[in-house]
Specification:
This protein has 78 residues and is α+β, with helices and mostly antiparallel strands. 29% of the residues lie in helices and 15% in strands. A hairpin with a 5-residue loop joins strand 3 and strand 4. The longest helix is centred in the N-terminal third of the chain and has 17 residues. 3% of the residues are buried. It binds zinc ion (2 copies). One zinc ion binds next to loops. GO terms for molecular function: ubiquitin protein ligase activity; zinc ion binding. It is an enzyme of class 2 (transferase).
Length: 78
């Protein structure tokens, strides 16, 4: 999983380099609340594996804890 995240991040950085303006616009609305402590988290990396400041790790797409099974609607669901 860690390796996958790095690859996605690298791809995002390349995409940003090509079109920085539209990339920053796409951040609008990319805020969610941590299911554990309700802190707002801004998604600003290509990885859907989120780690809150409280240490809670969760999936950006389905909001389940990262090490628990994902919801069937999530693209990480197997
Ligand atoms: Zn939290
Ligand atoms: Zn998920």
């Amino acid at each position: 999983m860690e390796e996958e995240c790095k690859i996605q991040k690298e791809e995002l950085r390349q995409a940003n380099g090509r079109n920085a303006e539209s990339a920053s616009e796409s951040y609008v609305g990319q805020l969610k609340q941590c299911p554990n402590c309700s802190s707002r988290i801004k998604k600003n990396e290509g990885c859907d594996h989120m780690t809150c400041r409280c240490g809670h790790q969760f999936c950006w797409i389905c909001m389940n804890e990262w090490d628990k099974p994902h919801k069937s609607s999530c693209s990480f669901y197997v």
